[in-house]
Design a protein that fits this description.
Helix content: 25-40%
Bound molecules: adenosine monophosphate
Order of helices and strands: EHEEHEHEHHEHEEHEEEEEHEEHHEHEEH
Structural class: alpha+beta
Number of domains: 3
Distance between the termini: 47 Å
Number of strands: 18
Number of helices: 12
CATH topology of the largest domain: D-amino Acid Aminotransferase, Chain A, domain 1
Length: 378
């Protein structure tokens, strides 16, 4: 029996979810349909889409949402800022995974941090702020340096201000003060790592990918290195993911981003979806995060999450490097999302997948002059 999978969003994550669903066709027939805000979005290259204006949803009979929900059996999403009113409307008519609770928690950094505190999961110290005086008080309470963040809709380092000295408070307030804010300790971390966990409907088991080290520039992920071999941290991260999955009735891929400080994990944020730091799994794991997400929400058994050798994932940001030059480097895989280039925009990624760490380092060295955002070749 064909499963009709609906996806909210039409970006590259939706595109890769659709590709994984289609590649499962030997085992199960899965059709995809995306709800997207642009006709030429990445997902439109591989799947039918229905166009919608997410900021002014039309709930009328025969409207885009109605058409969408009538053509799908189960719904998931590729981004966490979908208006909850849309999700609530869809939930009354169809199964939506992950649960609304996960979405609502991830949409607001204050709720997210509070959820961690309630579960005794370590996070950087934080305070909610709603006035410039509050911000000054918070800087005294927590001590500088701090990071000021908008509670909602920040991504890739947007909606953030690094507060290093008291003199910057007025500037920080001017930049972000029109929004609800949270202020948190600036963590002088040793590493940033992420964990991808998956829970399906088919059984009680949760599966985990190996931890990944992530390197950012200007708040944008540039490089992921997998696996990050740290058995104690892996265990701690899995315990945290298990608590969250249980608390949030979670089904699907859940990503947790951590800071590693003094050998301990602090949660930075969660993403209730497939994640950029899991793109390496397409070539670098037995089952990709996209396939496992599809399996999870469609009620199929989950696949093996073990890494195959060593992988690195480089985002291509602002411009695509020439494909022939990238592909001339052994062990590389070139992914172009077909997006219009714009400064700071994620346009694609390149994965390196090798049998040894030395081969991976060599490939990264060779890619450094070709992909301009290579940060490290370790
Ligand atoms: P976010 O959008 O919260 O994931 O932030 C983007 C990036 O900014 C993170 O991956 C970190 O590199 C950096 N960052 C965010 N919050 C903090 C913090 N409290 N301390 C240090 N660096 C941070």
């Amino acid at each position: 029996m064909t499963i009709r999978l609906g996806i909210l969003g039409g970006g590259q994550l939706a595109q890769m979810i659709c590709e994984a669903a289609q590649a499962l066709s030997n085992e199960h027939a899965i059709e995809t349909l995306c709800l997207a805000d642009a006709p030429d979005c990445p997902a439109s290259r591989v799947s039918p889409i229905i166009e919608i204006d997410f900021s002014a949803p039309d709930f009328s009979a025969g409207g885009p949402l109605d058409q969408f929900v009538n053509q799908v059996d189960v719904i998931t999403y590729e981004w966490e800022n979908i208006p909850l009113e849309i999700v609530d409307w869809l939930r009354q008519r169809c199964t939506v995974y992950p649960d609304r609770k996960a979405l609502a928690t991830a949409q607001d950094r204050l709720l997210e941090k509070q959820a961690m505190v309630d579960l005794a999961i370590p996070v950087p110290d934080f305070v909610a702020v709603d006035s410039q005086t509050n911000l000054l008080d918070a800087s005294k309470k927590l001590g500088l340096p701090l990071v000021v963040k908008t509670r909602r809709e920040g991504y890739d380092g947007k909606g953030q201000f690094r507060l290093k000295k008291e003199d910057d408070i007025a500037r920080a307030w001017e930049a972000l003060g029109d929004k609800a804010l949270i202020v948190e300790d600036f963590v002088a971390f040793e590493y940033e790592v992420s964990l991808i966990a998956v829970k399906g409907t088919a059984d009680e088991k949760i599966v985990f990918y190996p931890l990944v080290e992530n390197q950012h520039a200007s708040g944008i992920l540039c490089l992921s290195l997998a696996p990050f071999d740290a058995p104690t941290l892996q265990e701690q991260a899995q315990d945290i993911a298990t608590k969250l999955i249980k608390q949030l009735n979670y089904i699907g891929v859940l990503t947790i981003e951590f800071f590693v400080k003094d050998g301990q994990l602090l949660v930075n944020e969660i993403a209730p979806r497939v994640h950029n730091s899991g793109h390496w799994t397409i070539e670098g794991a037995h089952t990709s995060q996209f396939e496992n997400h599809v399996r999870a929400v469609c009620g199929l058994p989950l696949g093996n999450t073990a890494a195959i050798g060593y992988s690195a994932m480089l985002n291509t940001i602002g411009e695509m490097p020439p494909a022939d030059q990238v592909q001339a480097v052994p062990n590389t895989h070139y992914h172009d999302y077909g997006k219009t280039p714009r400064p700071g925009r994620k346009l694609g990624h390149v994965t390196v997948q090798t049998s040894t760490i030395d081969e991976r380092s060599l490939a990264l060295e060779q890619l450094a002059p070709i992909i301009k955002n290579v940060l490290s070749s370790s």
